[in-house]
Design a protein that fits this description.
The complex is a heterotrimer of chains A (269), B (307) and C (516). Chain B is mainly alpha-helical. Chain B is 80% helix and 0% strand. Chain B contains 13 helices and no strands. In chain C, α12 runs antiparallel to α13 (456-473). Classes of the chains: A mainly alpha (269), B mainly alpha (307), C alpha+beta (516).
Chain lengths: 269, 307, 516
Amino acid sequence: MKIRPAVLIGLILVSLIAGAALLASQIAPYSPFQQNLANDLLAPSQEHLLGTDKLGRDVWTRALYGARISLAVGITAVTLSVLIGFSIGALSGYFGGWVDGVLMRLTDVLMAFPGILLAISLAAFLGPGLQHVILALCLSGWTGYARLVRGEILTLREREFIHAARSIGCGPARIIFRHLLPNILSPLIVQGTFGMATAIMAEGGLSFLGIGTPPPMPSWGSMLSEGRQFILIAPHLTTFPGLAIMVTVLALNLIGDGLRDGLEKAEKR
Amino acid sequence: MKRYLFIRLLLFVPTLAGALTLVFFLIHLVPGDPVEAMLGETASTVDKGALRRQLGLDQPLGTQYLRFLSRLAKGDLGESLYGQGPVMELISARFPATVELTLAAMGIAMLLAFTLGTLAAVKKNSWVDQASLLFSLFGLSTPNFWLGPLLIIFFAIDLGWLPVSGRGGWNHLILPALTLGTSMAAILTRMVRSSLLEAIRQDYIQTARAKGLSEWSVWLKHAAGNSLISVTTILGLQFGALLAGSVITETIFAWPGIGRLTLEAIQTRDYPLLQGCILIIACSYLVINLCTDILYRAADPRIRYEN
Amino acid sequence: MRLRLFTFLALSGWMLLPGCHPRNNTDLPRRRLVVGLESSPTHLDPRFATDANSVRIGALIFNSLVRADQNARFQPELAERWEALDERSYLFHLKRNITFQNGKPLTAEDVKFTYESLLAPQSQAPRKSAFRMIEAVEAHGPHQVLLKFTEPYGPFLESATLGIVPAGSPLAPLTRKARLIGSGPFALEEFVPGERIVLKANRSYWQGPAPVSDIVFKILPDSIVRVLEFKKGSIDLLQNDIEPDMIPWLQRNSQALIQTLQGTTFQYIGMNLDHPALKNIKVRQAIAQAIDREAIIRHLLKDTAIPATGLLSPTHWAYEPSVRQFAYDPEKAKRLLDEAGFPDPDGAGPLPRFKLSYKTTTLELRRRIAEVIREQLNQIGIELEVRAYEWGTFYGDIKKGNFHLYSLAWVGIMDPDILYTLFHSGSIPPSGDNRGRYRNPQVDRLLEQGRRVADADHRMQIYRAVQKILAEELPYIPLWWVKNVVALNPAIRGFTPYPDGDLISLKNVSFHGSQP
């Protein structure tokens, strides 16, 4: 299987970022919480690779730990969204009828709220806390997967191999998990990759508005919003977290694109 | 077609009702008391109780909900808890600003997308194509809360061409619309490119070419029409994202729109105002979706015949 | 023929007319002043205004019987003098020839109406409870107003700071179409929600018209945008809503004049004295000694504040300078905690002595300060959980007493009677703002006395004693008094910063180059 160079770049980037996140405690020169007020807003130097923030904390260290949060939030939110979306979409698509009607109305209702708005409301009302952020992203994100799964299942439902499975007495659960799921997996993964990118950006946005990851945990989004106050005197505080988000999202998009192209090619064959 | 229209409209109402109900119950089951936030530091219990009674906040939830629905039927969105007047007035004062911003953002997005997308499709695999893909990728990946201040510093301060913030003449619109529209431009560019590429492979294009039409005419008249449909659909879906993204953009540029109003309403627990905002946003979103769905069905010749 | 001659003469006469006028200064165009604000005022009607912006802008539109000066002493405004008729009633003599912005004269009936509409049972005005000591307001003739209180009330003059509206003005919210009429130096011309407020100079103001033509308050929630607009010249004045780190930047990169004035805004840490640890005075003193205020002021606030000793600042007439102060001394703090019965379970290890939650708003600067305080308390073995809430929830929690520690600021402190609302045991919510549940019978007695007594010197003695006790017992931990920092267009003349941020001097402001 030929891998496009772009996808390769994406994979390498993601691996680097994930690796950095996992090994953060080993690589980081300082503690992400260690303050040094007198050394605030220092530009990048040998002691501080990416400089220091307003409280004198090392930006490179915080960026490394921030990778953990971003990736963790991204993966968890997407996984949960996919799980919920899949369940609802599968039930809807497979059983059809009034089940479909009710569930799709529910989906429509939630989709009437632009994602971020719902996420903002939930995060604002539930208060600070990483779990609330994830919950908010999750509840606003599952609808896309539900629609996708439903659509795929509607198409696949009438195929021969499904009829065959039904005729030999397979129950719905078995059919859904054994036969339908493997076929849906690919578009789900593609969508999930993009979803992760969206989740990471959304977390940044929520932190920017002050309702995301609570301090002192360093998340790229909150680093960006903290650093924004100083954009005119210490631009490195916004450049690097913003860059980090951009590169991660870029990498995920590259991978997602590659997967999608690969999928389309596979289908055409 | 008529049947489809009827069904869609029929489904629209319960969806909207469901959205509203969700909003109502969501914000009422939340910590933080609006009466306290509203009356300030030194209010006495008696005053607070009186206000609570007047606003009906002491009634059981069910009663409040029914009151809400009946008022809504009369077109009354209630009064802002913060004493800023009827919600309808507050919203209608700020809604046009968001519409202006959103339309401008869509306009910029479409302009960029069609230009770059078409160029990319026509000159497939050339450097133009790569550049547009790159632009698209970066546009998608750049957070608008990073882009906004950067644009301000570059265009408004260093170059001094444009104003820093606020709403005013057309030059006030450029930076916020650019910030808001970039991610949409990114998505649309690829959309335009891929649908153009797909369209160009269709049979009716071969026919057009066989008829001897110029290459440009083929692209623009025939292929473009098709891509317009897909773009319109995406626009409709992305409209919600635009509305949401406007919260951040409006905050950065001090743009007096609904996005910022919603954020303020959340922060001050102004229930009626928040409900009104979400109602308007959800309504607009659903209406736009409805329209794009109908347009999509009406415009696409293949689907029409399928029906 | 004659008609043509006549026309010619008439026309040339018109042309000559401008030349006949001596070019005096009133012909030069007056300039408009633009002020940047961080958030929109919520109500300009003085009966509704509670937040700082509303009060400050309202003061430009409305006059009151008396007005607090820079030392929190009350000076005559609409009233030229007043006298006590008995220990609960005061007669105010109004100045003559004062008119509202619509030309109608201001009389005692307007004063009576303003107070009565505020205190009416059905009014929802938030300011009502601040005036609950008033029993009646009577008009004795067109220029005499009697204020009667329910009991002898020392701080009676604070009740006379209510802006006066014309009789019959409805209690309307601030909307686009709001028509507010006052007697002050500026009239409300336009209110665009979320965008700007435009005040037009009152040409017939009884103290003389303001030199500027109008004032525009531009609402700019984003701190960077405020600074950039100022640099561009689209705002002329910015007070206090400036990131401390941006002040040197402004000095380097713009022509701005930066004025700094010692302020009265008091930032403090409130504590819940019902909490088992915070109940103990040694614990509170330990916390006070663990916080390095000087470092925070120097690095985070860039010296835009000075360490505070109590609620009343040095410019206040009742200020007591010699109170107990708790300097930064983490070792001493640790010993105090040991003495209080909260030893450190593992010495220098990660286990804390106990945990506390600290609530703050989501404002960036506040969160930064919270982070530093967390770290400093960590050093003495207290684990702090910082929880940032947006204003609505935060305020609700604080008022209910649902907190361990929180930080807030008191703005616009006038009469020291506020100490009653904050520290009297009878003022525990919901009856008052003693949110920390501080109970001290000696303080109670003193505060009650201060409220009854009318003589200023006597009151000063009483409140000085109160301040001494409070500094010892620390129901609040004083942090700092915020300086008033103003960035000005250098062409501006006549602006006087006030310690509490009052913008009243805008009525005297003019631009160099236009007429005085």
